[in-house]
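The material for today's practical consists of a large collection of protein records. There is nothing in a record beyond a sequence line and a structure line. Backbone structure tokens are a discrete shorthand for how the chain folds in space. Nothing more is needed to start thinking about how sequence determines fold. As an example, a complete record with its sequence and its structure tokens follows.
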Amino acid sequence: MEKRITLLPGDGIGPEIVEQAAAVLQRIAVRHGHTFATEVKPAGGAAIDATENPMPDFTVEACLAADAVLLGAVGGPKWDALEGARRPEAGLLRIRKEMGLFANLRPAVLYDTLRGASPLRPDIVSKGMDVLIVRELTGGLYFGKRGNGTGAAGREAFDTETYDEREVRRVARVAFAQARNRRKKVTSVDKANVLASSRLWRDIVTETAADYPDVALEHMYVDNAAMQLVRDPSQFDVILTTNMFGDILSDEASVVTGSIGMLPSASLGETPRGLYEPIHGSAPDIAGQNRANPLATILSAAMMLRDSFALEKEAWEVERAVSRVLARGFRTADIMSPGRKLVGTREMGGLVAAEIGRD
């Protein structure tokens, strides 16, 4: 198999962690006879410094020409004073739109060897946690009509949540398809007892479920879902939800696992081409110090192998390698605990690459 991958290292620790993930991908390519041609392009603050644009046209063109995109992280204090459209984060919004990405996938897995890092009681995490949150990415409250002004009671502002049938149905299909390859259960999270948009959401998800008779569907209000995530996360398989609710619940799930440095993500659209990135930030305070945790980026690369390239075996090998390295006691600073072996970014990446293919 021959695939083209555009690498967007970005800012802060981005270049360090993308380097390690790219090395793991090349290890997989050599082992299985694939060819992964990579091309590095600027994005975020690095692109602003070079071109005054957080996502220049030539970077967008490279992403659209690739089979998948791997992003490190963008942003940092250096660019905080810039206005909205010129900020590093604006580049992310542009590339998602240009690539037609509407479904954000965030797996939250609690590794056995990291259960002590979870803030939940041992009896709760003893049942494990392997949840995939599928968040609608381009609609809802974040993209609805908004405004502000002055009324009879003083200053006022409004934001509106709008969803249409097409938006809901397409992301629901992603969630059901993912569930088919997991434990065959989808929990759709909404606020249908209050919001009209949620009632439409629930209706369309229920209709879509008829096309997936092998997948169980349950509906849950968002406040209850937030409680259940910390009460018994093992009950969930795939959580499907709106843009705003998904933003909140995915961050909650990341805390339950014990470290945001362990969690990957994928943004997908109608085609196999996706954008893959760790969910953590650019961590400029440790950039260039060989202290960053590359595992979330490496696991994002595993998602790329599975979701964009349909290479299930290769994805599983990467995930197994990560699990084995953790089981051997190696830790970066963010997941370090007494009695474990502290390693840096490069060492952790090298350990994972070396583990691939080992019997």
User: Anything to note?
Assistant: The longest helix spans residues 14-32. The chain has twelve helices and 14 strands. The domain at 119-256 is CATH 3.40.718.10 (Isopropylmalate Dehydrogenase). The CA atoms of residues 29 and 35 lie 6 Å apart.
